[in-house]
């Protein structure tokens, strides 16, 4: 025989699982998660919260560049926007890109300030 048995045994020994071969792929996925995926999810969450908090009187900018004031909240997905005096459009909430000015919430009580002061019961 021209081939010795030692060479034949060395060639058949490569069937094991090597974790170090997958380490670069795992490292790339971790970098992508922290640099791309996580910030995008955070930005989407902030946009959802901003859109959910829209109310009448807020001044908004749409993704197309239109600027208007929320005239009425029609539903969970639609708004009535006043672009100028007497010009109103319907728009979807998700198309709002930015809120320029928020209105101050009105108080629930309709009193004229003639309430009696509260008396503390400290002794």
**Which strand order spans the largest sheet, edge to edge or round the barrel?**
4-3-2-1-5
Please provide the count of β strands. Answer: 5
CATH class value of the domain at 22-101: Mainly Beta
How many alpha or pi helices? 2
Structural class call reads alpha+beta
The chain-level mean pLDDT equals 81
Estimate what percentage of residues fall within beta strands. 15-25%
SSE run: HHEEEEE
CATH topology of the domain at 22-101: SH3 type barrels
Oligomer designation: single chain
Q: Biggest sheet, open or closed, and with what strands and sense?
A: 5 strands, antiparallel
Q: Name the helicity range.
A: 25-40%
Q: What is the CA–CA distance across the termini?
A: 111 Å
Low-confidence stretches: 109-114
Q: What best-fitting shape do the alpha-carbon axes yield? A: rod-shaped
Using the CA coordinates, give the radius of gyration: 32 Å
Which second-level CATH architecture of the domain at 22-101 applies? Roll
């Amino acid at each position: 025989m021209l081939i010795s048995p030692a060479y034949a045994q060395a060639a058949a020994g490569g069937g094991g699982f090597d974790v170090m071969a997958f380490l670069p792929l795992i490292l790339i996925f971790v970098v992508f998660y922290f640099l791309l995926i996580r910030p995008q999810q955070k930005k989407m969450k902030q946009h959802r919260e901003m859109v959910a908090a829209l109310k009448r009187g807020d001044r908004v900018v749409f993704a197309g560049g239109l600027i208007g004031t929320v005239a009425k909240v029609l539903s969970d997905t639609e708004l009535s926007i006043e672009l100028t005096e007497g010009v109103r459009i319907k728009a979807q909430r998700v198309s709002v890109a930015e809120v320029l000015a928020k209105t101050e919430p009105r108080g629930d009580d309709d009193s004229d300030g003639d309430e009696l002061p509260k008396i503390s019961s400290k002794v």
